[in-house]
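@channel anyone free to eyeball this complex?
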Amino acid sequence: MAALTPVKPTPASFYVPVVAAAGGFAGIFVGTAQGATLLGLVAGAALLAGIALLLAGALSEKEKAGRWGLFVLMALAGFTLGGLMGGIIGALFGWFFGWFIYWLSTGRYRQKLVPYLTPGQVLWHYTFRVICGAIFVFLITPIIVVMPLSFNAQDFFTFTPEMLRLDPDGFSMKHYDDFFTNSDWQNALWNSLTIAPMATLLSVTFGTLAAIGLSQPHVPYRQAIMAILISPMIVPLIISAAGMYFFYSRIGLQGTYIGVVLAHAALGIPFVIITVTATLVGFDRSLTRAAANMGANPTTTFFRIQMPLILPGVISGGLFAFITSFDEVVVVLFVGSAGQKTLPWQMFTGLREQISPTILAVATILVALSILLLATVEILRRRSERLRGMTPA
Amino acid sequence: MKLTTALLATSALVVSAGVASAQSMTIVSWGGAYSASQKNAYHDPYSEKTGVEIINDDSSAEAVAKLRAMNEAGNVTWDVVDVVGADAIRLCDEGLAMEIDHDEVLAAAPDGTSASDDFGDLIVSDCFVPQIVYSTTFGYRTDMVPAGVEAPNDICDVFDLETYPGKRALEKRPINNMEWALLCSGVAKEDVYDVLETEDGIAMALAKLDTIKDQTIWWSAGADTPQLLADGEIFMGSTYNGRLFSLIEEQGQPVGMMWDAQVFDLDGWIVPTGLSEERTKQAMDYLFFATDTQRLADQAKYISYGPARASSAPLVGKHASLGIDMAPHMPTDPANAANTFLFNYEWWADYRDDLDAKFQAWLAQ
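replying in thread with the prediction:
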């Protein structure tokens, strides 16, 4: 849908103030880094206003040359001021402002919008995108910051001067090395990897059965049973943990592998029940009756008819149950003993007693794993949707 | 039905396995470099000698609460617990730690001095087997000392924002901070606790702390101050001397130690009550091994805390990997201990709750 919006150059009285405002905003950061916020603001605004006049006025016909020139000049200026890192930041600024100045001055910013929008609507259109971007940055920055820090050559959560200069001496793999060689971390990883799948298996089995049972109209007290089953999700975790601790101690399950698995299964069941119940809403009951009519017993009906249809719900419930067990630290602190120390537990003690950057290395690995896991599930889901779309129902 | 039977059988197996293996014991400590030093000096040699597997649990920070819960649940899973002196006194009073006859359970010194004489005054409770002497003292960034000014070497430099401008880090509790504040308000060392008993004394200490309150970051974990110093976020901060040693000598950070008015404290072992006879015997056997003169001196090879036995001091050698002499880094070294402050356990046991409340109220103002 290409709207035929006329594109015409804008007057300098429009693009110079806008570019100057953006320059002032960037100048605040550069200025604060040098210890002079106000000076940075003023200098940034003035500098960018001048550049905008020059590029859009004198060089308006030679856009390519103008943008490359600004890119190289800013990179060089950054490099002389702040070394390699300064050069990179300068180049990024140069690239952005080169694009920004021509985008505004040629009027291209209206190109993809419908022609009848008022200036106010155009402004809101882009403000909205900037706000969304800002929220995204706000959510993702804490996770991104962890990654370069995990390659720190020092034993602290600090961006050292060497790192900021991009000096290879400032970086090392030693925290990853520590994670893969230290027996504490390896035991914790092993414990997590043995507890989480077992807990997931139990949650998925019991949760799916419960969801199917509770979706039968003839079961009495369905609401009450449902409320009890999903209560581990609602009751504060610390209450469940303390209760489980005393109960498991009395029956000899406290501090055992089975105890932790059962506790985590109890926490995971509500997720499975909720996702499976949601998929069962769209399930056509006449299919099971048809299967029974043709002589299939309930077990066969379940595995051949019902299970394949509710599988997406079961899988996403299982994924939640797995993540719950894999991330859980409160319950395992109570129900487990040192022999069942899981990864989050080890991270928790490491963070409190030692602030060791090995935690950052582990966090980076876990983030990468989570992305891989979620991406795989998403690809599989799309594939099955595509396959289903291709076969006529 | 089959599934249930299988599950029950497995859980029964696991439970019996957990009870049957008396050949392992759980030792609770503080984690980090401190646990590592104990592993090297005590756990590994002990496992090698006896074949007992030692499981480390880094839960000393919540030892009192957890022991109470275990006792209530009737399921004590810890065998030996490393706690600070004050916690040992509390646990002993509550009957959660066993009373130990030091001369009967522990080894005598090589020259035949009995264990109780060798540890001397450091046995602050009948349940407590002292292990190390540590101190809480200040570290400062050497590169942030203003030009032309001497590096801080007096506890009152902490309160002197004019000569030493910059952020401070202090522990988020009244202990130590109140004493230091009074010392720098002109109260004589021996009068500190008498003054702190009065309302005026508390007001005086808080008024002194008020002068640096807006420049202070409050820490609660031992690792905080080293991190803040490494960041250059603060100019000086209090923490345990072993953390500062590792920051300066092992990490090579531009940080100096100010030993003035360091506060001594003790750390050591207790054995929980409610263990089976077999496990108690095992725990005592471990204590006999781990607290003899040579082992205590060995621990000082890995961390700069002073051994609690008088007879261990001459045996303190060089750092295991750095090869530097450890004696000058001990809080008990005469040069470092020129001006020390003795932490008064009994006084704090009586006044802690009251002062905690007042201190927190002051913090919130």
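from a first look: Residues 72 and 91 of chain A are 7 Å apart (CA to CA).
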